[in-house]
Design brief:
The protein is an all-alpha fold. About 70% of the residues lie in helices and about 0% in strands. It is built from 16 helices and no strands.
């Protein structure tokens, strides 16, 4: 018997106000520079990354003959476009705080540009599908357990919660375009997710250290924070290993995985209040 496919309606939500201003603390994750800059690094590439994702998927738009998939692509593009705009706003706040963010992330954004120019459309959409799997996994990872985001500033928690919800909703779009339209086979699909590992090294290690250096932290202090937070990193990201490996199973499809357990709670509260901050608090309260 085929495994159940879970579906979510893709709903673009625009002009949301997260209250991002200069009152957001520099170290918004419980005053911890390492945790803050790790997440700042991860989100910093989203504006360029979302544009790359959209371009990679819409490159195959003319070949889509399924009206439902065509509509999913349209909504995916609107969601990703909004993500890019909001994270661009946050990046400007980081820059205003004295961190030369554009220079720090230039190696990653430069690679995205070169991929668009040099790689085949098929490999670009395969990379996008793999990256969407990572972002959907991380979205669940951040909000599945109460302890993860407990010390985060409520505005940043709300921004990340909204992004997480929409990653759940469109997690299969790039994958479906890759398989059904671009006709990418298993080998290229598997190679794409392995290829992305070099980006993770930059985002997880080099960029956070460069940001902390700009904050005035000494090398000794930065590496002390890196080492002392290893147990936290293992506890946070350890559960992702099996989910990442699932992508390499030949019969994998994103919608064979259920959305995060508290997904419906965010939807319920946002539908009632229209407030992403209140919805985020409900999402966090409903976590395990």
């Amino acid at each position: 018997m085929a495994r159940r496919h879970f579906t979510n309606e893709i709903i673009p939500r625009e002009n949301l106000d997260f209250g991002l201003d200069t009152s957001v603390p520099r170290f918004w994750w419980g005053g911890n520079p390492y945790k803050t800059r790790l997440f700042d690094s991860m989100q910093s590439t989203f504006p360029d990354g979302e544009r790359y994702f959209i371009a990679s998927v819409v490159a195959f738009r003319k070949g889509i003959d399924d009206p439902a998939l065509a509509e999913d692509v349209r909504r995916f593009s609107r969601q990703e476009g909004q993500h890019g705009l909001v994270h661009e706003q946050y990046n400007r706040m980081i820059e205003a705080g004295g961190v030369p963010l554009a220079r720090i992330i230039a190696p990653i954004t430069g690679r995205l540009k070169r991929r668009s120019e040099r790689f085949s459309p098929e490999f670009n959409v395969a990379l996008t599908a793999a990256a969407e799997h990572f972002t959907a996994m991380m979205a669940e990872c951040f909000f599945d357990k109460k302890w993860v985001m407990a010390d985060a500033d409520h505005r940043m928690r709300a921004l990340l919660a909204w992004h997480a919800i929409e990653e759940m909703e469109h997690r299969a779009v790039a994958f479906d375009v890759m398989q059904k339209v671009a006709k990418v086979g298993y080998v290229k699909r598997a190679w794409a997710i392995l290829y992305l590992s070099r980006d993770l090294i930059d985002v997880m290690f080099r960029a956070p250290h460069a940001m902390m250096k700009a904050d005035g932290l000494s090398a000794r202090r930065r590496w002390t924070l890196q080492i002392t937070n290893i147990p936290w990193l293992v506890r946070l990201f350890g559960p992702l290993m099996s989910k990442a490996g699932a992508y390499l199973v030949p019969g994998f499809h994103p919608l064979k995985q259920p959305p995060m357990r508290n997904y419906a709670k965010w939807l319920e509260v946002y539908a009632r209040t229209g407030d992403p901050l209140e919805a985020a608090e409900a999402l966090a309260a409903a976590a395990a």
